[in-house]
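Review this chain:
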Amino acid sequence: MCGCCGECWDNVKDWLICLAVVIGLIVIAGVVIVIVIFGGPLRHVRIRVEDASLTRFALVTTPTTALAYNLTLALTVRNPNWAIGIKHDKPLEAAYSFDGQPFERVHVADKGDKQGPRKTVVYHLASSSEARGVALGNAGEAEFRKENATGVFEVEVAVTGKFKYTLRKTKCKIEATCPLKLQLAAPGATSVVFQKVDCELAKSDDKYC
């Protein structure tokens, strides 16, 4: 009888030891998750131009230098963090420039907009003007004529904003540049091939960004 009780007690002890080990592993995993979420490194957002179409890009020189254009973009913003969402602390904007001179600024997202973990948001941007003033100067006008001869225009998109990460006090500035080579669509053309462009993010001075 005592031998049977001893054997049962040994089984109970083994079970309790296994239970303690499992609980310990769960606690350790929980601590690691908390450390990662609240103190681990953040993965920065990824910005990409998925598609772009330029159906008009003309230089107007009278009465002042200006650009006439029709430009559409499909801009994606991806949050690669697996457990942390983001919230726009400032409006997200995209500024277009030709030969280093800005000619358009587009509102992308509102302050307060949220984006969940591992989510990608697509923004469809469309802008046009009959004559938007731009200070190209002689060199800029010469560059325009050069690119106009090929039908391919180099336009840079600069994306700026600021995000606040959920469960964190950290706020990170976004400064991304997207150099585009846009083939001017021929009249009547239904589509023009566009190579996706991954935008380059400026390195942040904040070590938590």
